[in-house]
Design goal:
Aspartate Aminotransferase, domain 2, 2 domains, 7 helices
Length: about 200
């Protein structure tokens, strides 16, 4: 790190250490917490290629995905949800939640290794054909386990053909990959474009 960058880094760290509790309680003198955060909030839609009215910020990706999955409205008894072994552990847990609350069956699949685009798509196609009642797919764009980048557009298109929606966990992708919620991943019947 350059000296200038190190000095700025230290200054920001000192500010957080000095003001963190006050900052979180919105008690700092002007500008207010919201005024300080507004430029970052305003930048999110353009970062992900969405309109401002399509973006809802929350405490974190896990919180957002919990809310979306637990409240997903298209699931009824005997439907199924699909998750892969490379999905984030907590999301595998929450995608299985409707099993107990609504009688929805969780389906776990294994992504083949070594992974290629063709064998990943083949595995998803097989899971969808073997389980025609899948209505929702949990898809992690960049796996925290092995860094695997999933072919999201193709999986979302495949899901649509099988009558399923996709909830995309792209928390690890923002900043690593170009994220465009309109061109990269399209969801049918979802009220938001990008999740987590």
């Amino acid at each position: 790190m350059t000296r200038n960058s190190a000095a700025v880094y230290r200054a920001h760290g000192e500010w957080v250490n000095r003001n963190n509790a006050l900052f979180l309680r919105s008690a700092l003198p002007a500008p207010t917490r919201d005024e300080r955060l507004q430029p970052a909030t305003d930048a999110v839609p353009s970062l992900i290629g969405a309109r401002a009215d399509e973006v809802a910020l929350c405490g974190g990706g896990t919180e957002a995905l919990y809310g979306l999955i637990v409240n997903y409205w298209r699931l009824s008894a005997r439907d199924a949800v699909l998750m892969a072994d490379v999905d984030y552990d907590e999301m595998q847990h929450v995608i299985a939640y409707p099993d107990g609350s609504r009688g929805v069956r969780p389906v776990r699949m294994t992504v083949p290794e070594p992974s290629t685009k063709a064998n990943i798509l083949g595995a998803y196609e097989a899971a969808l054909k073997q389980n025609p009642r899948i209505k929702l797919i949990m898809l992690t764009q960049v796996s925290n386990r092995n860094g695997l980048v999933m072919p999201g557009r193709e999986i979302a298109d495949m899901a649509r053909r099988h009558g399923a929606d996709v909830i995309l966990d792209s928390a690890k992708a923002v900043g690593l990959l170009p994220v465009d919620s309109r061109r990269e991943i399209r969801f049918r019947d979802c009220h938001c474009r990008l999740y987590g």
